[in-house]
Amino acid sequence: MKKLLDHGILIAGVLFLLTPLYLLFVSSTHEVDTLIRDGLQWLPGSQGLAAYEKALNQSLGFSGEATGWRMLFNSLVMGLGFAIGKIIVSMAAAYAIVYFRLPLASFFFWAIFTTLLLPLEVRIIPSYAVVSDLGLLNSYTGLILPLIASATATFYFRQFYKTVPDELLEAALLDNTGPVRFFIDILVPLSRTMMAAIFIIMFVVGWNQYLWPLIMTTEESYTTIVMGLKNILSTVRDSHIPPYDVAFAMIILAMLPPVLVVIIFQKWFVKGLVESEK
Amino acid sequence: MTAQKQKLPHGITPYLFILPQLVIIAVFFFWPAAQAVHMSFMLEDPWGLASQFVGFENYALLFSDSSYGRSFIFTLVFSFLVSLISLALALLLAVKANSVLRAQKSYRVLLTWVYAVAPAVAGLGAYFIFNRQIGVLSQAFNDMGWAFNPETDPFDASFMLILVAVWKQVPVNFIFFLAGLQSIPKSLQEAAQIDCQSDSKRFFTITFPLLAPTSFFLLVINLTYAFFETFGLIDTLTQGRPAGATTTLVYKVYQDGFLGADLGSSSAQSVILMILVLVLTAIQFRFIERRVHY
Amino acid sequence: MSKQLNISQLVKCYGNNDPAVQGFNLAVEEGEFIVLVGPSGCGKSTILRSIAGLETITSGSISLAGKDVTHLAPAKRDIAMVFQNYALYPHMSVYENLAYGLKNRGYNKADIEQRVQQAAAMLQITDYLPRKPKALSGGQRQRVAMGRAMVREPALFLFDEPLSNLDAKLRAHMRLEIKKLQKRLGVTSIYVTHDQVEAMTLADRIVVLNGGKVEQIGTPEEIYHNPASHFVASFMGTPAMNFLPVTALGNNVVRLPNAQELHLNNVPNNEHLLIGVRPEHIDLHGHQVKVEINLTEELGASRLIHCQVGEHPLTVATNEPITKFNAIAFNQYYWFDSKTGARLGDSQFIEEEAARA
Ligand SMILES: Nc1ncnc2c1ncn2[C@@H]1O[C@H](COP(=O)(O)OP(=O)(O)OP(=O)(O)O)[C@@H](O)[C@H]1O
Ligand SMILES: [Mg+2]
Which end of chain A has the least Cβ crowding within 10 Å, N or C? Predict the structure, then answer.
C-alpha cells in the first residue's frame, strides 16, 4: 500500500515534467489548420515529422541563412567550444594554482574567485561594449570567450587536483618528469572522468545560452537555435496563419541534443552537477 | 588555503598555464565589471556621444522610481516562491525515489532530463501551452471558471511564470537531494529504523536534519537561479507584461540598458545586483565553512 | 672510505615549527640494509624524503656514491623509492608503470623491454604486465612498486613503510621477499617502518629515532641486547620490556615496588632508578620476587603471563606449561635513569658503537 503511494507520487512527478513535452511533440505532427482550429492535440496527427523537415531546412529569417540545420550547427559550436575551451583553460589554471608555489598565488586565487560572484547577465552591457571594441561581434570567439570568463570549472579542477595523492607527483619526479610532462602524462589522464562530467554540464550550459548570443549576434548566420526561438515567437505573433507546427518542431529540436546528452551520460552528468556546485 | 601539496620547482611554466584564464577574466570580466561601476556614475546622452559625471544621481533616481521598487519586490517574492516550491517538490520526489527499489534508475532519468532544457525553450513551450488561442491550460482554467489571462492580469502572469520556473528547477534540486540522501550511510538508516518505528517521524528527526546542509545550500543556488537564469524564461513568456508586473531585476537591466538605452540607470542596477550577489555568496560561504566542520 | 651514502648534520624544519629532524648523521656501507624505526611523527619519512630530494633540507649535507647530492633534483640522484600507498600511475598498465621512468630518461625501446621483462620475471609479475594497477591485489601492487624501483638499477633504494597496507600474513611473506631480493641485487637500501619486527628481521643495522633525534644505531642484536636508552629498550622487542621503579639501598640491594628487598648485581647509585627486564628473561622457578598472577594469554607454542609486583605490572613469557607460581627471579636486567631515560651501568656495546660511528 505504502509502496503504491510512493510510486504514485513519483509517477505524478514524472508526468508533471513530461506532459508539456509530449503535448508539444504530438501537436507538431498535426496540420497547422487543426492546431489553429482545435488547439493543442493529445494524440498523434497525420503529418508525421514533416514539420521537422521544414524546421530544419526552411529559413525563418531574411537572409535565408538561418535554417534549422545552420542554427543547430551554431549551437553545437557554441556548446562544444564553450565546454572544451572552459575545460582547457580551467585545467591549466588550476594546475598552476595547486602545484606551484607562486609568489602571487593568493592574488591569482582571489582574482579568479571573484568571477564567481557576477554572472554575465549583470555585466552584459559593458561586456557587449568590450566585445564590440575588440571587433568580435558576430564571431564564434566573441560568442564563447566572455562566457568562459568565470571560474566554476577552475574551482572544480582545483578541488580534484587536491585529492590526487602527493605521492603520485613524487613518484613522477623520481621518474624524471618535468612540470609539463606531469600535467600531460599523469594529471590529464587521471582527470578523464572529471573532464567528462564537467564537459556534460558545460555543454548543456553553452548550448542553452540565450541572452548573450541574442545581444551580440546580428548576422543570421550566427543564430543559435535557442536564441532563434525569439524569431519564432515574433513570427508566430505576427503572422495570420501562425506556423505552430514548425514552432513546436523547433522547440523539440532545441531541447533534444542537450536532453539526450544528459540522459545518455546520466552518471557523469549527475557527478558533474553535484561536484561542480560544491 | 592550507594546501599541503608537494610543490613543483618552477620557472616560467606555471605562469604560462595560468595566463589564458587571467587574460580572459581581465578582458571579459574585470574590465566590463569596472565599466559597469564607472557608467553607473555617469549620465550619457541618448546617442552615446557625450557623458558626464553625475555622482549617485542614477542611484537616487532608481530608488525614487516606483517601477524599480516594484521590480525589486516582485523579484524577491518570485525567487522565494520558486525556491521554496521547487525545493519542497524535489525533496518529496527524492525521498520517494530513494525509498522505492524498483525502477529507481528510470525514475531518476525521467525526473532529471528537464535540467537540460534551456529556460528560453521552456518559456516558449509554456507560451504555447498557456496560449489563449491554442493552449490547453488556459482552456482548462477557463473551464474551471478562472478567466485566465496572463496578458492583462499580473497575478495570472506571475502564477504562470512561477509554475514554469518550478518545472525547470525541480530536477536540479531533485538530483542534489537524492545525492544527499544516498550519502547518508546505510548503517545509520538501519540504526534509525531500529530506534524509531514511524516513517514520518524518522524522516523529520533523522533524515531531514542530515539533509539540512544540502537544503540550505540549495536555497542559495535556487535564489541565484531565480534571480539570473530566469531571464530567458521571462523574455519568451511574458517580456515583463502586464505593464512590468513580471519584470525581474535582471530583466530590467536588459530592458533599460538595451531597449531603453538608459546606460547610466542600467549600470546602476547592475551594481546593485552585484552587491546582492555578493551578499548571497557571503551567506553561502559562511555556510560552506560550517559544512566543513559538520 | 667506501661509504655509499653519507648524511651529516641533517636538519629539517617545516615552516616555523620545531625541527622535525635535528642533526641527523648516518654513514651507510655499500650493499647495507638500514632500517629507520620509531614511533609515528618521529621524522622517519622526513629523513627518507630528504635523501630522495623530495624535501629541501634546512641544513646539512647528503652525498651518494661519493657525489654531493644535497642540492640535486630527485631525478638526478640515482635513487628509487617505494611508497607506502605504492603511488602507481592508475591509468597506465603495469608495463607502462615500469617503463615510464626509463622512457623519461631516454632509454631506447629494446633496452626498456629487456629491463622491464627482467624485473618482472624476478618479481613474478610477468603475467600482470598488461593489466592496470586497479586489477591487481595489494601484494601484486606492492611488487609492481618494487619493480618500478628496480628497473632503474639505482645506487640506492628507499622504502617508506612499503608493507603497512598489507595484511599480517602477506606482510610476513613480502618481508622475506624484500630481504632476499635486496641480498640478490646488493643495492644499498634505506627502509622506514614503525613495526619493530620488520626492523629486526630486515636490517643489517637499525636506526632508532625519537622526536627527530637518533636514540641508537646498531645491529638488531645490539639493539635488542644492549639498548642505549629507556626509549630503545621499551620500543624494541615484543612483548615489551618490563620496567619497575626501585630504590637503591646501597651494597647492591634495592627495594622493589612491593617493598621487598633484593640483592642484584652492579646496582648503580642513582636516585631515580628503573630496572628493565625482558619478559623472556624471567626465571619462573627463581623464588626471589613475589608476584601475583592476573591473567594468562595462550599463544600456542608459548604463553604470556601478566603478573603484578606491588602495584606494577610485569609480563612473563615462557614456553613451559606452567600457569601457577608466586615468586620469580630476573635472569638478565638493565638499569635506567627514569628521569633522563639514560641507560646506567654496564654499557660495553654502546661504547663499541660510539667508536665505530
Ligand atoms: N609537510 C609538512 N608540513 C609540516 N609539518 C610536517 C610536514 N610533514 C611532516 N611534518 C611534521 O614533521 C614531523 C615528522 O613527520 P614524518 O612524516 O617524518 O614522521 P614519520 O616518522 O614518518 O611518521 P609516520 O610513522 O606517522 O609516518 C611530524 O611532527 C609531522 O607533523
Ligand atoms: Mg611516515
Answer: N
